[in-house]
């Protein structure tokens, strides 16, 4: 009992120190505890928002009206309408919101829907934190400040009930599966995200090359077939009924947005905003930016692929090394305690020489391959290489390609902030800006999205921030690749 109390006191002394607290806030590898605290705080905060802040009706009733038509047997997309106009989302949206229609008493129990969206938000946060924890890029205090203080994001998720958060949730599910090399599940959930809202296709250029680099052409075609099959199966009832109206309604890339709701182009006249040449110009800029960034993204993916291969080769050897070390420690413990040693547990001289040479090989391999030193074990610790950090080589290209799509969007409505909000800290900490300037950009972006209705100043400021962020990432990626090229 005395020893237990002493250890407990020592643990509390360690925790309640400035050094420990500082490390907890600044060290990206300590995000696990901080993320748990953020999620608990968000649970309480979102419940308070739902209970204290009035719900604002925007699209929920229209969603319910569109799904009511489907539940009544209408399969012709051109006849599925709500107060805000025709149904413009793919079939996955119809099924999900039809389910919400049924469990919320035909959409009347809005409070229940809000609590469901709290669950959606917390689940997405968990998936976001899992990526950030693996990448070890962003200090925990940044996520505390950014996530807990965003008025607009909390509004989008629990006060508006848009379909954007559901699409983004499915996207983050897929990203987590891709990080585990679970290709089928990753493709499945990616396509499910697209089936809720078409904006998830903004990730498609990066994902295509990620497939190609990791899997080769044949298996890439298999993954594309999975993605396409999901869309066909979900849309099958509508495709059979009226294929033209379904494809035109759910995947209408030529749809003209209402200038009234734009966040990013308030400074343009409505005539210019709706002009086809303006839309084509934005599309051209989008393509040009992809042409600039995709080659860099491919190099990141190639490094990711090579180092994952190294992991597959080295990890079993590390495990074997740790297993032999445990056997050796067990033998030494028995020697100290005077217990009889099983002859099979004794390490031979040849085995000991192998372990010594293998240790040297691991250290050499780690320096060349992953730039993460093999941790020198203490008497009780194990050898390890932190391969999770390779996440950086996958997630930045995915985030930046989506960000390019946001920058070049024909119009951004307020709910579209959810498309890239949770990736912004990662993108900003992937450039060489000072911490103060990063926070300034985050604050300005948040200010622009909180300005309602949008103004010329807020729209222009948002574009300036987007361009600055994009340029910062371009410089960082290009400099890193030049450095790697010189080393090679």
Automatic annotation (TrEMBL):
The EC number on file is: 2.4.1.258
Q: Which GO terms describe its cellular component?
A: endoplasmic reticulum membrane
The organism's place on the tree of life at top rank: Eukaryota
Which species is the source of this protein?
Bombyx mandarina (Wild silk moth)
Please state the gene responsible for encoding this protein: LOC114241636
**Is Transmembrane helix one of the keywords UniProt gives this record?**
yes
* Keywords on record: Endoplasmic reticulum, Glycosyltransferase, Membrane, Transferase, Transmembrane, Transmembrane helix
Q: Pfam families, from UniProt?
A: ALG3 (PF05208)
So, what pathway does this thing act in?
Answer: Protein modification; protein glycosylation
Principal location listed in the UniProt entry? endoplasmic reticulum
Task: Extract the InterPro entries matched here.
Answer: Glycosyltransferase_ALG3
Annotated protein name in UniProt: dolichyl-P-Man:Man5GlcNAc2-PP-dolichol alpha-1,3-mannosyltransferase
